[in-house]
Design brief:
The protein has 161 residues and is mostly helical. The chain folds into two domains: 12-87, Winged helix-like DNA-binding domain superfamily/Winged helix DNA-binding domain (Arc Repressor Mutant, subunit A); 90-140, no CATH class. The protein contains six helices and four strands. It has helices at residues 12-20, 23-33, 39-46, 50-62, 84-87, 90-103; strands at residues 66-70, 78-82, 128-129, 135-136. A hairpin with a 7-residue loop joins strand 1 and strand 2 (78-82). It comes from Shinella kummerowiae.
């Protein structure tokens, strides 16, 4: 079965998954946040086949999540560096981490921990807030149809029969 592209979907979640939804891609991004920059280091850390890694890195560069840069040690190699767009995935990675901590580990089971580098204390749980500061859950939100999001004064899309 051919994979369907969501590149032009109205849903931001679908478009995001089209760009970075593969688990290898998210693990590569996670490793990039941990300071990994070289193909060989990604390959060693993830235990991923070279062909799959090459494809995922190429796709992340094409999506603008990573860019290629000359090696920081002055060698002839190139390194993969998070772009601003890639760095914008930090909260996504933290949200996945925290969800996993909450639902996939037994009480007392060892795991890595995300800490504030300045204080060495665990970071707070992510929370969604309204513009007035109230905490929000999924029950407090709703999706507004894309057609309803058009700027005021712009023509309405034609209704389908």
């Amino acid at each position: 079965m051919k994979r369907r592209s969501f590149r032009e979907a109205e849903c931001p979640v679908a478009r995001t998954l089209d760009a970075i939804g593969d688990w290898w891609s998210l693990l590569i991004v996670r490793d990039a946040f941990d300071g990994i920059r070289r193909f060989s280091a990604f390959q060693q850390n993830l235990g991923i086949a070279k062909g799959i890694l090459s494809t995922r890195l190429r796709d992340l560069v094409e999506a603008g999540v990573l860019s290629l840069a000359p090696a920081s040690d002055g060698s002839a190699y190139q390194e993969y560096v998070l772009t601003e767009k890639g760095r914008g995935l930090f909260l996504v990675i933290v949200a996945l981490r925290q969800w996993g901590e909450d639902h996939l580990f037994r009480a007392g089971e060892r795991r890595s921990m995300l800490v504030d580098a300045a204080t060495e204390t665990p970071v707070d749980r992510l929370k969604l807030h309204a513009s007035d500061g109230r905490g929000l859950t999924w029950e407090d939100t709703r999706i507004v149809d894309a057609a309803s999001c058009a700027p005021k004064g712009s023509p309405s899309p034609p209704k389908s029969a």
